[in-house]
Design goal:
alpha/beta, 6-stranded mixed beta sheet, 11 helices
Amino acid sequence: MTTKANFPVAAGSIVVPYGHVIGNEKWRGSEIAQRLQGKIRLIFEDDLGLVDFHISNRICILYISEADLVAGDEFKRRLVRFRNASSLGGIVIVEKTQISDQYFFAVQKLVVLELGMVLLPVANQGEASQLIIQLVREQSKDHSSNPFLRKQCSQLVEPSVFRTVQQIPGVGKTKALLLLQQFGSIHQLCNASVEELELVVGQTAAQQIHNFLGS
């Protein structure tokens, strides 16, 4: 018998209200949920299948925790099932800690090179919640067109985004700062071409960043 957790996810099958996030019921009461509350509108559903969070009708997040990485290959099967069954754009958020660091290269290879998805490393659920907030607010044209609101959003998540960008191969503190000054967000950085990145960090680092983010 097929369970809800194994249902494929099709674009348009989940409708995300403007400015909301739809979260898998399993995240109710988690640190991520607690930190999202009050920042964005979070709705829980119990039939999201393989997905952890929907941030728009076409973009969703799959979260891989430190415990998932240590436990074995089940998370890999989950990612492959999602990619094979879903037409949604998937962002994979992975907890990169001292314990899980040894598994990170293999995860990066699977997510970026084999599955062609975007991978974003975080230290913990707190950082993950800040990235989700930024990604959701970037979907809002009102926020994007309002410099004051953009500044507020940037100030809210800058430490988290800065640390995440620093973890990209070939990027240190200086290049991370330059990249964020130029592109403003993870979303824009993921969509940047090699040529656009070269203007900021040079050819070698640009290629490393582009390959890592799977753009």
